[in-house]
Amino acid sequence: MPNFDYEAPTSLASALELLARPGEVRPLSGGTDIIDQLKSNRRHADLVVDLKRVPELLTLESNGSGLRIGSAVSCTEVHKYTAEKGGFPALSESTELVGSIHIQNRATVGGNLCNAAPSADTIPALLIHEAVAHTANASGGREIPLIDFFAGPGQTVLEKGEILKELVLPAPSNNTASAYLRFIPRNEMDIAVAGVG
Ligand SMILES: Cc1cc2nc3c(=O)[nH]c(=O)nc-3n(C[C@H](O)[C@H](O)[C@H](O)COP(=O)(O)OP(=O)(O)OC[C@H]3O[C@@H](n4cnc5c(N)ncnc54)[C@H](O)[C@@H]3O)c2cc1C
Question: For residue 189, is it within any domain?
Fold first, then answer.
């Protein structure tokens, strides 16, 4: 793997300061996409900023108005939380499908979203639940409805120095339900050819 610098900040302010540095600076959440991309030269980084130790990105809570998922929360945590609390079945189903248990323990919903692969399993669930991406950068942040978050396969509208901070999903209306189904050539552990929320 090509050499790069690595930092693991413990506050959002220091993470944003690192992300605003010149050069190719890449956030890492679970690393299950980015490490492979760096190894295979599909992405380049001068500096990798590990976000897993930033407390502000580890929120996972719900109340009457909806669900907040910090960008560094793992798929395992989201699956367990939504399975127990109910209300977001498509998200619960899709987070349990990402890779294997080992991958789900590292991988985040935020990373799945920001990697922006057309095959990403959590994206259809987030779209149908009308998630809003709350971003952060050194000068503030924005709220982006997920329908406006993607600029093409593998591309998002995030700018240099800007990260996904959290996803906010409004509480579903009464008498609604959701589900996620995917078509994969193998029985398990495969990338979706088609995913439907
Ligand atoms: C064996 C294996 C099986 C897999 N199976 C599946 C599968 O079945 N379904 C599926 O959908 N995916 C699968 N994946 C892909 C991957 O695990 C998921 O996309 C995962 O959710 C990525 O999350 P992560 O936290 O590891 O992201 P990372 O690798 O940390 O990051 C992914 C991308 O998002 C960027 N990023 C990360 N966090 C942020 C942030 N907060 N703000 C801005 N940008 C950010 C990174 O710079 C990088 O470009 C698999 C991967 C492996 C290795």
Answer: no
Host H or E run for residue 179: none
Number of domains in the chain: 1
Task: Give me the pLDDT at residue 188, please.
Answer: 79
Closest ligand 1 atom number to CA of residue 34: 29
| pLDDT less than 50: residues of the chain | none
Write down the pLDDT at residue 1: 85
Q: How far is CA 124 from CA 28, 35, 141, 179, 197, in A?
A: 22, 24, 24, 10, 5
CATH number of the structural domain spanning residue 48:
3.30.465.10
- The answer to whether residue 58 sits within a structural domain is yes
Read off the tokens for 59.
Answer: 């929120």
* Parent domain of 80: 5-181
- To test the ligand 1 pocket, which listed residue (1, 25, 29) has its Cβ within 8 A of the most ligand atoms? 29
The model's pLDDT over 94-115, given as tens digits with 9 standing for 90+, comes to 999 999 999 999 999 999 999 9
Q: Whose CA is nearest to atom 3 of ligand 1?
A: 99
Question: Which residues are paired to 136 by β-bridges?
Answer: 163
Considering the domain boundaries, does residue 196 fall inside one? Answer: no
Beta bridge partners of 168: 68, 132
Question: Taking the model in full, what pTM does it have?
Answer: 0.97
Burial bucket for residue 111 (CB in 10 Å: 0-12, 13-18, 19+): buried
pLDDT of amino acid 131: 98
Determine, yes or no, domain membership for 190. no
